[in-house]
């Protein structure tokens, strides 16, 4: 029994102790500002490439080449973002340039495997858009190749680094929220934008294209569980981030993931 806000005694109405408010701690959750002087070749001048180039330009990265089988698309992005960049309709010409350090590959996965392979063989570091691969054996082959060539092969799972999740992970990592017992989160994401795009033809597009942000750590089954719970992608995401932050999260190969 407790008194409600109007002073009435109400059954089952718990007394509410005052909740103290504390200012949000100042945590280094934003991207690092030290810009590596690497020269980048962007391969695939489509929709997501605009976001990459916007971010590169804002941070001061050097995009030296833009490639697309549709040369006009590469030219358009060059004119908009990096007027000094070379443009090619054959990405191999960019990979032939010794000055290029990094290939940022933003095509769809059907053609990406071969491009990643060529980039690693040309001794470039690679940033691959997701989904990294549609075939585990081929994906593992690329990982082995990157190791052999001593090149970095990264996948663009940007959601993990989004400021809100990064901030939350730092909170947990710093012990500021105690032991995490459960997390409830809901993400409302309008996917109607895929109408009229190639994404519309992707079978199980949301599962494959959006849910993959979770699947990348190899937790396929867990990803499915998340998908079909009320939290839609949310429940568990933050838990995983929390586990990553405390170092207890491992991918399918048993490697710890750290933030
Ligand atoms: N990480 C994220 O949040 C995020 C967001 C959106 C898209 N994506 C991923 O990025 C990828 C691309 O998506 P998009 O929306 O930019 O697609 P898109 O169709 O707009 O662009 C793909 C581009 O690749 C070009 N291309 C195809 N074959 C090529 C080749 N051999 N050489 C050079 N260019 C070639 C196409 O001409 C096209 O311009 C997809 O895998 C998608 O899942 C990731």
Summarize the structure in words:
This protein is of the alpha/beta class. It has a domain at 39-156: Rossmann fold. The chain has helices at 47-59, 71-81, 91-95, 109-121, 136-148, 163-173, 205-210, 212-215, 220-227, 237-245; strands spanning 2-3, 9-10, 39-43, 62-67, 86-88, 102-105, 125-128, 153-155. A six-stranded parallel beta sheet has the order 5-4-3-6-7-8, with helices on both faces. Strands 1-2 form a two-stranded antiparallel ribbon. Strand 7 (125-128), helix 5 and strand 8 form a beta-alpha-beta unit. Helix 4 (109-121) runs parallel beside helix 5 (136-148) and helix 6 (163-173) crosses helix 10. The longest helix is centred in the first third of the chain and has 13 residues, at 47-59. The protein starts with a strand and ends in a 14-residue tail after the last helix.
Estimated helix fraction: 25-40%
**Mind describing the biggest β-sheet?**
6 strands, parallel
Order of the strands making up the biggest sheet: 5-4-3-6-7-8
Low-pLDDT segments, ≥5 res: 216-236
Radius of gyration: 22 Å
CATH class of the domain at 39-156: Alpha Beta
Number of strand segments: 8
Order of secondary-structure elements: EEEHEHEHEHEHEHHHHH
Shape: elongated
Mean pLDDT: 80
Estimate the strand proportion.
Answer: 5-15%
User: What is the CATH superfamily of the domain at 39-156?
Assistant: NAD(P)-binding Rossmann-like Domain
> Given the structure, what is the number of helices?
10
CATH structural architecture of the domain at 39-156: 3-Layer(aba) Sandwich
> How far do the termini sit from each other?
45 Å
Classification by helices and strands: alpha/beta
CATH topology of the domain at 39-156: Rossmann fold
Question: What ligand species are in this complex?
Answer: nicotinamide-adenine-dinucleotide
């Amino acid at each position: 029994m407790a008194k409600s806000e109007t002073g009435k005694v109400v059954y089952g109405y718990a007394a509410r102790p005052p909740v103290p408010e504390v200012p949000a701690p100042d945590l280094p959750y934003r991207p690092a500002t030290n810009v590596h002087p690497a020269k980048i070749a962007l391969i695939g001048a489509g929709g997501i490439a605009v976001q990459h180039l916007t971010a590169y330009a804002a941070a001061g990265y050097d995009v030296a080449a833009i490639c697309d089988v549709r040369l006009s698309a590469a030219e358009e992005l060059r004119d908009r973002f990096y007027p000094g960049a070379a443009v090619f309709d054959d990405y191999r010409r960019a990979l032939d340039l010794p000055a290029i350090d990094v290939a940022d590959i933003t095509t769809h996965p059907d053609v990406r495997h071969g491009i990643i392979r060529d980039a690693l063989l040309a001794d470039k570091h690679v940033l691959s858009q997701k989904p990294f691969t549609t075939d585990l054996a081929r994906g593992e082959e690329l990982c082995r190749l990157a190791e052999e060539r001593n090149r970095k092969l990264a996948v663009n799972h940007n959601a993990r680094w989004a400021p809100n999740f990064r901030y939350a992970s730092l909170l947990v990592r710093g012990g500021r929220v105690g032991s995490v017992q459960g997390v409830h989160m809901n993400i409302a994401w309008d996917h109607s934008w895929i109408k009229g795009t190639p994404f519309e033809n992707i079978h199980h597009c949301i599962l494959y294209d959006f849910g993959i942000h979770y699947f990348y750590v190899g937790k396929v089954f867990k990803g499915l569980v998340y998908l079909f719970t009320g939290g839609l992608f949310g429940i568990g995401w933050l838990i995983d981030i929390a586990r990553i932050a405390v170092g207890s999260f491992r991918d399918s190969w048993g490697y710890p993931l750290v933030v």
